[in-house]
Amino acid sequence: MEAVADTRANGLWVVAVTFVVAMVLAIIPLPDFVPAELGYLRPEWIVLVLIYWVIALPHRIGIVIAWSVGLLVDVLLGSLLGQHAIAFIVVAYIAASLYQRLRMFSVWQQSMIVFATVGLNQLINIWIESIAGLSEWNIWRLLASVMSAFLWPWVFLLLRYLRRRFDVS
Fold first, then answer.
1. Residues 72-76, mean pLDDT to the nearest whole number
2. Residues 122, 48: contact at Cβ < 8 Å?
3. Using one digit for the tens of pLDDT, what is the confidence trace for 12-47?
4. Coil, strand, or helix at residue 1?
């Protein structure tokens, strides 16, 4: 019985590492030679990782983890405290409520759901920032959901490989 608990606890470090890597990818600045407008094409790495783990481990990764990761992202990015937490809770709720259906879809069909979910995440963040007077509406900010949907199959395959390789359950 103890060996099973150790294996499950050991597997959670993979989940934590993937979130840390996603956070690093989210804050890496673009090189100086890249036009600033291309920053709108940066995928929502943290949301992609969150969606994957909620679908893969709905009994372990859910609303509480989404809220915790959201607060960490708020501190990391210096945004309003709770802004990303609220958006990530909505994302986790949608992914958790659809996880059985999403598992039946091909990765390209999942990409469409990821597109809508990441787009909703973006809209919640834009809405909160506009209420606080920090930014104004900009349709270009929704390009991140397009890039996230495009990259979803590769993120999915990589995270599934890691989950199987390290027996995360």
1. 97
2. no
3. 899 999 999 999 999 999 888 888 888 889 999 999
4. coil
Per-residue pLDDT tens digits for 105-139? 999 999 999 999 999 999 999 999 999 998 877 88
Task: Provide the CA 133 distance to its chain's centre, in angstroms.
Answer: 25
Residue the block writes with tokens 């590492």: 17
What is the Cα–Cα distance from 15 to 59, expressed in whole angstroms? Answer: 14
Residue located via tokens 């909620």: 54
**Which structural domain range is residue 146 located in?**
2-165
pLDDT score of 163: 96
Q: Which residues contact 99 (CB under 8 A, 6 or more apart)?
A: 54, 55, 58
Domain tally, the chain: 1
CATH code, 135:
1.10.1760
- More confident: 84 or 9: 84
Distance between CA atoms of residues 124 and 85, nearest Å = 11
CB-CB contact of 46 with 73 (8 Å): yes
Please report the beta strands in 11-122, taking only residues with DSSP state E, as ranges in sequence order.
Answer: none
Which phi and psi (to 5°) does residue 20 adopt? -65, -45
